[in-house]
Every structure is written in C-alpha cells, then in structure tokens.
Prior knowledge:
Blueprint: E1 28-41, E2 52-60, E3 65-70, E4 84-94, E5 97-108, E6 111-114, E7 117-118
Antiparallel strand pairs: 1-2, 1-4, 2-3, 4-5, 5-6, 6-7
Amino acid sequence: MCGDCGVVNGHKPECKYAKKAESNPDWTETVVVINSIEKKETRPGKDNTTKPYLVLGVTDRDNLEWNMYCWHKSLFQYLKPKQMMVCQFSTRKDGDKTFCSLEKVTELAGVQFADNKPATASEPQF
C-alpha cells in the first residue's frame, strides 16, 4: 500500500509516486470507433519468422474512415469491433502513403488504461 495515496498495488494519478504518463510530441491523440479488425502477419524476414499485427478499420470524430495498425501484441486481447477508443498514434510516410500505428490506449470502451493495460481501481483497505 502506498503511504502517500493509500492505494494498494498502484497509485492515484495525483500521487507523487505515480508514474507520469509517457508522451511523445510526435504522437497524435484522437478518439475513434473501431469498425473492423483484421489479423495479419508480416512477410517472413531473414530468419524466416513472421510477426502478427492487427489492421483496425476506424472512424474518427470527423467521420473519416482510415486504417490504424497495432503492433503491440499485449493489446490484441482487448481490441474488439464497435468499441470507442481514446488513443495516441504515430504516423510514418512511405512514398505517397501514410501509415498510422497505435502507440498508447488511454481509454477503451469506457475502461481507463495505464501502460496499455486496463487500470485497476484499487481501494484502500483498512
């Protein structure tokens, strides 16, 4: 239990011991609805192995539809179609194409996330 905020196995966001949210100035924060999810694998590399990834068909708040790529396998189990997600993504240009990759989930289907995992709401125990 934290001696400052009283939370077991974690900290309140305002606690001085809480890990400050990582942020990257190159990431963009947005709210999207996940319309579809397609599981894919990369082409085999030099070591003849592939890596799984997801292609999320999303719609943003401006009603634009686009694809977001998810490379973080730890998120695969949480992402489902028809969910609203608050997230941060990075962009990479390759020729005339722009690729958007999911970097950090802040909220998914009304559940707060921390470190790309559902945040546990621990109450102080006396």
